[in-house]
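Researcher: I need the complex structure. Ligand is fe (ii) ion. Inputs:
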Amino acid sequence: MGHFYAFEYVNIPQNIFTEIKAFGESYEKIIKEQYGYSKFHWTGAHDFLCKCPITARWMQIKKLEINDVAVFSHTEHSPAHVDRKEGSTCAINIPIKNFANSQVEIYHPVDLHKADSSFCLKKGGGTNAYTFDEDKLVLLEKYDSSQSVILNTQIPHKSFNFTNKNRVMVSIRPKNSFVETSRALRDE
Ligand SMILES: [Fe+2]
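Model: Output:
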């Protein structure tokens, strides 16, 4: 297996963070009303860019194009999974609220074309993710999810919440690759 990118911590400028935080909090309320707790909601790129004009300009300058945006509001761990979001292979994950005692584990990449139920790919991941038998995955790294990161969503990952509070996170899904996104955000 050649080199691959798993994750990278990034600094989000304060004015951008403030705008994204307000966006995340508005959807936290909507998620609570519509679904109860522990859900995520795709908002669409257009909605995000309209409501976050400072961020929109910032991303335009950095030549980052948004495919979609999700707001997560979770109380529990996620399953180990690979994202099935079309048109995007990485995420800029920005924690908004209650990220004390939470972390993400990243596992050795799995070839989804070769994986089947006898190996580690489980059925029933829904349309949003491929999930895995976790005891068959090999841990690569962990990161502190109280910090903003770029995450390669195409390798297996699992988020942990060791509190009973809702973690609220805004997840921006660029059309750009991990490397392009990383370069664009490096100078912040
Ligand atoms: Fe994911």
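Model: Summary of the prediction. The chain has one domain: 7-185.
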